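Practice record 12: protein with heme C.
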Amino acid sequence: MQLQKAFGFAVLFFSIMKVCVAANPHETNAEVGTHMKDVTVPASNTVFAVANETPKNDEEWRKVKANALALVESGKWLLKTPFENQPIWKQATEQMMNAAKSVTKAAETKDTEKAIEAGDALYAACEACHAVYLNKSASAK
Ligand code: HEC
């Protein structure tokens, strides 16, 4: 009985801890920053670059598509963080994944206009999440 009670308290304690960590938007972990730098940023740079220079051949379009797919995977990763159940986090990530999927389609049909349009939507998704979750020191960069 005593043991059960102690176990109950431990469970309660850890679930409260989890809620506290997840409830503070600025309590982002360093892992998210590393993921951004390693995956999200390089992949999105390739997508954004289409607005400056139209891909010239199949290989360049394939590269755009591969990086758009990496952004879809990045979204899946973002949905497995402690913030996954928070509405803005979820919404911005889904927006990012949808935009990335549109880029994939545009790359398959080599449609520059559509790729740029989807790139703009992608950028809006990055901003939507950062507006709430990026800490001040990071956004000042
Ligand atoms: C669902 C939320 C979310 C989305 C979507 C998102 N980010 Fe981030 N990003 C973050 C958070 C949180 C941090 C800060 C991590 C930290 O605390 O170090 C961050 C940090 C960054 C940084 C700073 C990295 C550093 O530490 O120097 C860059 C650059 C960045 N994001 C680019 C992007 C781009 C480009 C996109 C869109 C293609 C994007 N992010 C989409 C949440 C998001």
